[in-house]
Specification:
The protein is of the alpha+beta class. It contains 31 helices and 18 strands. The chain is 53% helix and 12% strand. Strands 8, 9, 10, 11, 12, 13, 14, 15 and 16 form a 9-stranded mixed β-sheet that branches. The protein has a 5-stranded mixed β-sheet with strand order 6-5-7-18-17, with helices on both faces. It has a two-stranded antiparallel sheet with strand order 1-2.
């Protein structure tokens, strides 16, 4: 017998267990807060800053909702559920906006314990649900994406589908019409919160239909479940979904004979609405992004060849099995036991079959990227809890059985707890960087553009209240190329001309109803070029005529970009025609050097040999072309000392104020970023320094 002994739970006991699990989950999310509270550099407006770049996107939307306005084409997400919910909570809760977005993930993400415990209760196994709630609420992957400071849609992205699972399990267990409406409501809420859930809910629909047709085709109630799932995923307003569900429920409840005659025509009509309002289009879009990208595929289909940003995103890459297992259950052994228990639970409790799409999506992480592991966490927690209860139910003495449950539950929780203690992800920015953007907010107009790498797009928009070319959601090849081109340009004219051109054509593109090409190619055609190489060469000409200026453009250069600058260069160091392979270039950052007397050891096999003024890299030696020592005096003015050694070779820059060494070839040395951030060298006819802070520098385009 695989079924566990039935366990009846009173409402009072249920509430106590839910409260305990919820407080447990929330309290562990304060470990990160307590660790970082002592560090003043990660605070702004008397509160810790958030640790997730994408969070600033939704914070921008909530801010604009609260302010009651935003600029045309500023991409502010005022229509997203997350921004709307945040704005509502900001109005009714007596806390600051910064405090709200810091703690929302902890308090909303911990709600996962409720549907997990309710699933257990629906199967008459509340203890199983309670143990699953404890483990699932702090499992590595789930914690990482719902911890304090990780302000993102993930705070409810798993709560809602597990709530769907509960409503379905309840309906399948009791097979009464009253349980149909919660199915539609839970799915509609999930679709409202996270439109990308379309694929998961469609898979759920197909699974229910497939199971019914194969195993129980005469059971009309199963078709009713499929119908109410279908209503939930329709691409219509949430009010319309719920209204339609209530109307059909009333037909089933009050006009039973009529409902039998109308059921299949009604089902056909709803299917027609499903395909008419989008069908599988959203599913195919996300499949193309995550499952047709691999490490060797570096171009995106276009008339031009761009570098594919997905090749640089870790969460979209393949992961080792141990990482996969630990992300889901905290430890490989726990994960294996959870898989065994989940399989046994499926056999023992057939309604749990509805959780297969959720687990399947989580297991896709093995080849589609670690971001998907979060979906498997709740059901694997149920699997482990089931196996633990099944194993211990043969212990006759109650006290010994409960002691065993306690010990083994603690054993499963411990790896996750140690992960929480060690997982000290930093805030997106520090206060000195935010101070720069806050100063820019007072200088720039809301219609102005700030050009920087896409990693910083959302926080720039939030803190400076300006527009950007690229951000965490807008970073395809055609927008990354001009951004990277500006940052790596070998002359000021090319960088300045691209900044003005792309700023103006970005705005024009929003309003041009006849635009068919992507942003970069739209600009190319408007400027009268067919060959992108001809266009790029023309940009270096001082006399190149740019469109009339409609707004200011600023260049934001943070210190933190040093570590990713070689990656940035990949997006511009290429032939857009795809016919020529550009040579690779050398760039090395050392965050500290050890002076041994004869050499300075920079790490990773790189050292400066003082006597010969050469660089040793493994078995190779390269001459040092020039050595720069750059640092700030007591008045925070940049001082540069230069020594020339050879006509060819690599350049070494010692950034004394940061304790960093940079080693690079001429391509990187001549780039906009190195010249303007590290050396503060710029063309005074084209650029004007606005803020020159050690942590970030901002230049205004003069043309």
């Amino acid at each position: 017998m695989l079924k566990l002994r039935e366990e009846r739970t009173s409402l009072t006991t249920l509430l106590i267990l839910v409260t305990l699990a919820y407080l447990f989950s929330v309290s562990l999310r304060f470990i990160w807060v307590n660790e970082f509270n002592a560090q003043p550099q990660v605070h702004w407006n008397n509160e810790l800053m958030i640790s997730n770049n994408d969070g600033y996107y939704y914070a921008e939307g909530a801010r604009d909702i609260l302010q009651g306005h935003h600029e045309k084409n500023d991409l502010s997400p005022i229509d997203t559920a997350m921004s709307q919910l945040t704005a509502v909570l900001a109005k009714i809760l007596p806390i600051s906006f910064e405090t709200l977005i810091l703690y929302m993930p902890s308090f909303l993400g911990s709600l996962i314990v409720i549907p997990l415990i309710l699933i257990g209760r629906a199967l008459n196994q509340t203890t199983m649900g309670f143990i699953a709630a404890l483990i699932g609420s702090i499992a590595n992957s789930y914690y990482n994406r719902t911890m304090s400071g990780y302000y993102d849609t993930d705070m409810l992205n798993i709560v809602f589908p597990v709530l769907e699972m509960y409503s379905l399990i309840l309906a399948l267990t009791h097979q009464r019409n009253r349980y149909l409406i919660p199915i539609t409501i839970s799915i509609a809420l999930y679709q409202w919160w996270y439109p990308q859930a379309y694929a998961l809910d469609t898979a759920l629909l197909l699974m229910i239909l497939g199971y019914t047709i194969i195993f129980d085709r005469k059971n009309i109630y199963f078709y009713k479940i499929a119908l109410f799932i279908l209503i939930g995923i329709l691409a219509v307003p949430i009010v319309a979904k719920i209204g339609l569900a209530v109307l059909i429920f009333a037909l089933f409840h009050f006009k039973k004979e009529l409902s039998i005659k109308l059921f299949w025509p009604l089902f056909a009509v709803i299917i027609g609405i499903y395909f008419f309002t989008g069908g599988i289009d959203p599913i195919w879009f996300h499949i193309k992004i995550y499952f047709f990208t691999n490490g060797s595929e570096n171009t995106i289909a276009s008339s031009l060849h761009y570098y594919n940003v997905m090749s640089t995103v870790r969460e979209a890459g393949q992961i080792p099995f141990t990482v996969f297992a630990e992300r889901i259950s905290g430890h490989t052994i726990t994960f294996i036991l959870a898989c065994i228990g989940y399989g046994m639970a499926l056999i023992a409790y057939r309604p749990l079959l509805v959780t297969l799409p959720l687990v399947g999506l989580g297991f896709i992480a093995m080849f589609a990227g670690l971001r998907f592991t979060i979906y498997a966490v709740p059901m694997m927690a149920i699997g482990f809890a089931y196996l633990l209860l099944w194993t211990t139910q043969r212990i006759k003495k109650s006290w010994l059985r409960y002691l065993s449950l306690f010990i083994f539950t603690l054993a499963a929780l411990y790896p996750n707890y140690t992960h929480i203690r060690e997982y000290m992800t930093p805030t997106v920015f520090i206060d000195q960087e935010v101070l720069v953007l806050d100063e820019l907010r007072k200088i720039a107009a809301r219609e102005d553009y700030v050009i920087s790498w896409w990693d910083y797009g959302y926080p720039i928009r939030y803190y400076a209240d300006v527009k950007t070319w690229v951000d965490g959601g807008k970073h395809s090849g055609d927008v990354n190329f001009p951004t990277a081109f500006v940052l790596t340009a070998q002359d000021s004219a090319s960088a300045a001309h691209m900044m003005r051109l792309y700023t103006e054509y970005t705005e024009q593109g929003f309003n041009d109803k006849n635009k068919t090409a992507n942003d970069f190619e739209y600009m190319l055609s408007k400027e009268g070029f067919r060959d992108p190489n001809d266009f790029i060469n023309a940009l270096s000409l001082p006399e190149y005529k740019t469109p009339q200026k409609s707004r200011d453009a600023f260049l934001f250069l943070p210190l933190r970009m040093l570590d990713i600058f070689p990656t940035v260069s990949l997006f511009s160091n290429l032939d857009l025609n795809g016919t020529e392979k550009k040579p690779s270039h050398f760039f090395f950052v050392s965050h500290g050097g050890q002076d041994t007397g004869a050499s300075i050891e920079l790490g990773q096999g790189v050292s400066i040999i003082k006597a010969t003024s050469t660089l040793k890299m493994g078995a190779q030696s390269m001459p040092i072309k020039a050595f720069y020592q750059v640092g700030y005096d007591p008045n925070k003015k940049l001082q540069i000392n230069r020594q020339n050694f050879a006509s060819d070779g690599l350049t070494v820059i010692y950034m004394a104020s940061y304790g960093q060494f940079l080693v690079m070839d001429d391509y990187f040395f001549n780039s906009t970023y190195i010249q303007m951030f590290v050396l503060e060298q710029y063309d005074r006819n084209l650029f004007q320094p606005v803020i020159l802070s050690p942590m970030a520098k901002i230049y205004k385009l003069k043309i």
